[in-house]
């Protein structure tokens, strides 16, 4: 059984590579999308591309990749690998898209006491941002993530003698925030962020979204493949709908930028590929 899965995986990976190249050529790109729109063509692509095609929902993508992903985010092997990668990231300078976030945070950081970092892993942003922004002495930065990442994050914070970085797997601790951060994580949540915020009694004054793939077309899901080592499903949200939902809750987008260091290729629908991720700064009016 395992041998069959490995062979099938090899076939999917190689086919996806071919589609990726063809998707960069105008005629081939139009041909791929024309075939994909037909019932028989879509069925053929589903078989050929397996988990590397696009899906309607995050759940569909997660189920498709499960036999090949070693459990995605939750699997200990992937969690350990992510920790090693994040340890390396902690020692790196800010990414280009971080500087846009710094611009909006710079004048507001003295008023920000309570920060909630959704999907913050082991505290990557905390360690990076504190070198660029003077957090107030009584500021508390809370990271929400999976249990394994929480354990590693707490151990790392203890090792570094950091006492204002906390970890939780309880979203209820997001009450009474000054700042909500969702950086590089929005697309891993199936529930849209405005729905989460709508259920908070004391909503955050500021919201920072960064490094998120957004589209102006229909929402869809795909599987990200990190060199065959980590495969996780992600959802591409519609930008206009996201902004409209925030506006309904009383938020205004005061800043928007591109995270050009990141992109997302959709092999069976090349025109839906995301050339650059997006960052948003929102404030409650």
TrEMBL record:
It comes from the Bacteria. InterPro entries: Put_MTase_LIC12133 (IPR027612), SAM-dependent_MTases_sf (IPR029063). NCBIfam families: MTase_LIC12133. This is Methyltransferase, TIGR04325 family. It comes from Paraburkholderia nemoris.
């Amino acid at each position: 059984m395992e041998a069959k899965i490995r062979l099938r995986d090899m076939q999917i990976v190689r086919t996806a590579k071919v589609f990726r190249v063809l998707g960069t050529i105008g005629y081939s790109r139009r041909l791929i999308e024309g075939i994909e729109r037909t019932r028989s063509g879509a069925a053929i692509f589903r078989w050929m591309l397996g988990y590397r095609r696009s899906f309607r929902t995050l759940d569909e993508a997660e189920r498709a990749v499960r036999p090949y992903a070693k459990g995605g985010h939750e699997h200990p092997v992937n969690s350990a690998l992510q920790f090693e990668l994040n340890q390396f990231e902690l020692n790196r300078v800010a990414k280009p898209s971080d500087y846009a976030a710094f611009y909006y945070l710079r004048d507001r950081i003295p008023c920000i006491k309570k920060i909630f970092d959704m999907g913050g892993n082991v505290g990557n942003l905390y360690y990076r941002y504190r070198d660029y922004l003077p957090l107030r002495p009584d500021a508390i930065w809370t990271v929400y993530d999976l249990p394994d990442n929480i354990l590693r994050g707490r151990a790392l914070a203890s090792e570094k003698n950091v006492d204002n970085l906390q970890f939780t797997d309880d979203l209820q601790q997001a009450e009474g925030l000054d700042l909500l951060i969702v950086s590089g994580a929005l697309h891993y949540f199936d529930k849209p962020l405005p729905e989460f915020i709508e259920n908070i009694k004391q909503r955050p004054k500021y919201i920072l979204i960064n490094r998120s793939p957004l589209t102006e077309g229909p929402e869809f899901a795909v599987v990200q493949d990190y060199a065959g080592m980590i495969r996780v499903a992600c959802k591409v949200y519609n930008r206009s709908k996201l902004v409209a939902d925030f506006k309904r809750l009383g938020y205004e987008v005061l800043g928007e930028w591109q995270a050009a260091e990141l992109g997302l290729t959709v092999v069976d629908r090349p025109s839906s590929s995301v050339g650059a991720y997006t960052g948003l700064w929102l404030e409650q009016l």
